[in-house]
Amino acid sequence: MSTWLIILLIVIAAVVVLGAVGLVARQARGRRGGPSLKQRFGPEYERAVAMHDGDTKAAERELAERVERHGELRERPLEGAERQRYADLWTGVQERFVDSPKEAVAEADRLLAQLAAARGYPDGGRYEEQADALSVHHAEHVDGYRRLHRVARAGGGTEELRSALLGGRALFDDLTGTEPDRHRASAGTSATASGGSRSHTRSHTPWALHRSRPKES
Q1: Rounded average pLDDT over 137-155
Q2: Are 58 and 115 found together in one domain?
């Protein structure tokens, strides 16, 4: 057998092997893709499908690309004082809402962007990329951030502004909290009642965020 024929056979065999490996990998992703992506992204999965006019495969490709780009991101932990600073800033936003709802929502949008950047996500100046990265790790709450960002720019009635701020609060709690902190908060808040330090997850929410009041003339 001549040398060139041996080389040709080796090349053909290599192509066949690579093609088979690629096919197996695609099939494996396909088996994992749909159900796992839907489970991982939850509401964000449905949003992606809607954004692609019902094209599930296109939506899953986009979501898989997000996981590939941002899945290895490791959130930078917040120091206690830093966490408390953000909690105090958010409490100030909620209190400001009573008199200046639109300005408070815009401030909350900026604060969430800053907090996400502090945790290691893309800078808030790259909002879409930041939101995509957040969707990989905080899929349940990123829609609230998207709505807050949209309302902060487009404006709306008081009820819409209130709803947007409350939606953004869910992501804020996720980003400022840790699992042990949340477990301690749910186990009891006797320290606060007895004069101890308050938990950032229990910061006061003004009553105006939960109910409307007639505006005085």
Answers
A1: 94
A2: no
